């Protein structure tokens, strides 16, 4: 249900990135304190007329899973046809509890759920493009059809799916804000500092 008096204009959208069980404490690819942002996100949703969720949604044979590569360790790199790819622990498998949104997240305000990473051979960090940088998720078309010109991003993880989404949104012409207080990061080998630098360089506002 839309809020009666949202604080944000009608051309603004809140994009809630991957607040799923496997990315929260106790999950297969847990982000430290990932569950501590949920109350803030629930409150933010009341300020927006337009709310979109993204959901990591992988088949069990997904090639980003380390255990689908003989002898490969999680968090190492492999080469995919589209370039370097981090190999992750198995997570967010289609239909699993780990792929579900965290039970404390209020799903009611979400008007669209973008599922990403469901193609076996392509990982997908961004809410807009898969990692081959050409396969679209459909989010850009959806937002433009609704007249959205600015997006605020929150969720998990700040230095991967949130940052990739923010960079793509900026490149697509949106005014982009990332609320860091409503995100948490993995920070793998300096990935957080690198992501922040890239977002600032692209004109993304880092707030909160």
Automatic annotation (TrEMBL):
This is nicotinamidase. One of its GO terms (molecular function) is nicotinamidase activity. The keyword RNA-binding does not apply. PANTHER family: LD05707P, PYRAZINAMIDASE/NICOTINAMIDASE. Residues 12-203 form the Isochorismatase-like domain. SUPFAM superfamilies: Isochorismatase-like hydrolases. Pathway: Cofactor biosynthesis; nicotinate biosynthesis; nicotinate from nicotinamide: step 1/1. It comes from the Bacteria. Belongs to the isochorismatase family. It comes from Pseudogemmobacter lacusdianii. The lineage of its organism: Bacteria, Pseudomonadati, Pseudomonadota, Alphaproteobacteria, Rhodobacterales. Keywords: Hydrolase, Metal-binding, Pyridine nucleotide biosynthesis. Its EC number is 3.5.1.19. The keyword Hydrolase applies. It is an enzyme of class 3 (hydrolase).
């Amino acid at each position: 249900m839309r809020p009666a008096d949202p604080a944000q204009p009608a051309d603004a959208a809140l994009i809630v990135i991957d607040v799923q069980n496997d990315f929260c404490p106790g999950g297969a690819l847990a982000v430290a304190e990932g569950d501590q942002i949920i109350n803030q996100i629930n409150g933010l949703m009341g300020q927006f007329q337009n709310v979109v969720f993204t959901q990591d949604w992988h088949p069990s044979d997904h090639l980003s899973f380390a255990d689908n590569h003989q002898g490969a360790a999680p968090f190492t790199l492999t080469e995919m046809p589209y370039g370097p790819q981090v190999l992750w622990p198995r997570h967010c498998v289609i239909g699993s509890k780990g792929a579900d949104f965290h039970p404390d997240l209020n799903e009611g305000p979400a008007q669209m759920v973008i599922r990403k990473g469901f193609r076996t051979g392509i990982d997908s960090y961004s809410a807009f493009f898969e990692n081959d940088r050409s396969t679209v998720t459909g989010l850009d078309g959806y937002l433009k059809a609704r007249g959205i010109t600015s997006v605020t991003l929150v969720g998990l993880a700040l230095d991967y799916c949130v940052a990739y989404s923010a960079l793509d949104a900026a490149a697509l012409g949106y005014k982009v804000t990332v609320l860091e207080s409503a995100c948490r990061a993995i920070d793998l080998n300096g990935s957080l500092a690198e992501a922040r630098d890239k977002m600032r360089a692209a004109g993304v506002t880092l707030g909160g």
